[in-house]
What does this fold into?
Amino acid sequence: MTRLYAVATTVEEVAARFDVDVATDIAVPSETVEGTQGLVVIEKDGLLLLKSLTWGFPRQTREMRESREPVGRIGLVADLTNPLWDRIVVAPRYRCLIPVTHFANPDGPKGARTRAWFSLTRQPIAAWAGFCRNTAEFGPVYAGMTAPANDKIRPFNDRMPVLLDPGEWERWLRGSIQDVIAFQFREPRPSEDFDVLQTRDLWRSGVPPLQAMKARVSSFRD
It folds into this structure.
């Protein structure tokens, strides 16, 4: 999975979807890339809360330290045995749900890549299985877990986000490490569950999916 997704709806609709109260200062970003703000749902004292955190855990390899490179970010959890994750994936207090309506993959040749948006047909607002914690380097951050892609997504990327049905939310937030492993290694959601919107918008254009859909409808009418 690439490092670009969007929540193409209002904060009120997100709050209603997850049955949470929302602070007046929380806004929905038009898109989220690593290092920028995104919405997460956490559980605290038995209640679900909507928070705005930064996407991407701190990451610095030995080579980066030796060459005095600044601390980088990583927002995707692919290998649960990586020392970066092996402690947090065990403890439910580090789990969260990441609201998402669309995730993107680049389409086309290098240098002219465009945005291809994927979304769940029957879940306008989906929940991506995530982890979050407070860090010394960046403060509160989060990351999303990925799994092997299905046939529709694989031509664009060999991995995709682990998207949860509402009936799986509690198991994700409170389950064991065996539950976490099971979610990552289960069969991918079938291709027919997904819609794809292939656009002419360049990868770094910043054009969100709703604007791309409006442009497509306008071009059909013309």
